[in-house]
Each structure stands twice: as structure tokens, then as C-alpha cells.
Amino acid sequence: MLIRAYLRASTTEQDANRAKNELREFITGFNKRMAGYYIENQSGTKLERPELNKLIEDSETGDIVLIEKMDRLTRLPWGEWKTLKSRIMAKGLVIVVVDQPMTHVVFSSGEQNSITLALTEFMLDLGAAMARDDYETRHKRQAQGIAKAKVEGKYRGRQPNLALHHDILDQLTLGRSYSQIQEKLGCSRATIAKVVKQQI
After folding, report:
1. Residue 43 Ramachandran class (φ > 0 left, ψ -120 to 50 alpha, else beta)
2. Catalytically annotated residues
3. 162-173 and 189-199 are packed helices; what angle lies between their axes, rounded to 10 degrees?
4. Which of 41-45, 137-141, 142-146 has the highest mean pLDDT?
5. For a FRET experiment, which of 7, 33, 70, 137 has its CA 20 to 30 Å from that of 20?
């Protein structure tokens, strides 16, 4: 049984590595070790994701897909979630979600009986449905807020994080590498490159 962690962030502005330590500490609590991390910046609303596909292809029956929360694995519409889940299940993989204790049983027992499997599948489906609902609700509210701001003449679009850009410039002035800046500030390489480009 190998454990492979899947970490995802929606955009390059977000840090997909953010939960890496938490996942490592989580499995250490069960005296387990990580076989690998699959990290990408892709929307959870996309069915085709290169690193997730690679994780599934690399895995064998009985291996574990470890995620922080269900919304890291999926924000897909219901039909597409069923397609993704079918691929994972057909490969014989087990999904473990850090914030869903029901899915942790495989670590303590080494296997799951039919009742536990059914309950786990129910919890995963419920988590997937809630992740999608949260996504749709947030986008609906965002659209309503933008529409209201436009009517009131207050909409200016997405603004850059000037404080972060200033911190990046400071780090660049000190001769820090992109990797060092990423680690210190928790930003993406794309953000650093954007700040550099603005200075040219």
C-alpha cells in the first residue's frame, strides 16, 4: 500500500504546496510514509488535470490517494465527479481525506469491510457535492457583487497585491532566488516573474 498525496491550487497566484507539511504530519501519525506528491495549479472544475492523471496512472490496486479536503480533488459537476470517481475506483485506489475521519479506517485496519466502504463512498459523494455547491455559490455571489459595483460605478476589476509585490522587490534586491522568495512569501513563480517584468 503506497500513499500518494494530491495537492491542488486553482491558480498560479495560490500556493499548491501549502498543505504539504500537514499531509506529511497526518500520515506520520499513523506511522506511514509518503510515496510521492502530485502538485498542480489547475481548477478543480476541470476533469482533465495532468498531475492527477499521472497519480492515477502511477498507482496500483490498494494504493491510497491522500487529499486535504474534497474540494482539492473535485469541484466538478456531479456527472463529471462520477466519471473521475469511477476511474479511481476502477484502479482499485482508496481515497483518504484528512478532514473526513471515516476515510481514515484503512490506516488502522488495513482494509475496509462492505459497510465501511459504502459509508466512505457516501461521505466522498457528499463532500464532492458540497465542494461543487460551495464553488457555484461563491461564483454566484461574486457575479452579483460585480454587477452591483458596476451599477454603482465602483468596479475596478481585480487589483494587484501591492504589498506582496513590494516584498518581492525587496527580496530580489537582496539577491534572493525565485525558490527562496516562494518559500519565504508563499507566492508563485508566475507572480515573481510578473513583478520582474513590470520593472523592465
Report:
1. beta
2. 10
3. 80
4. 41-45
5. 137
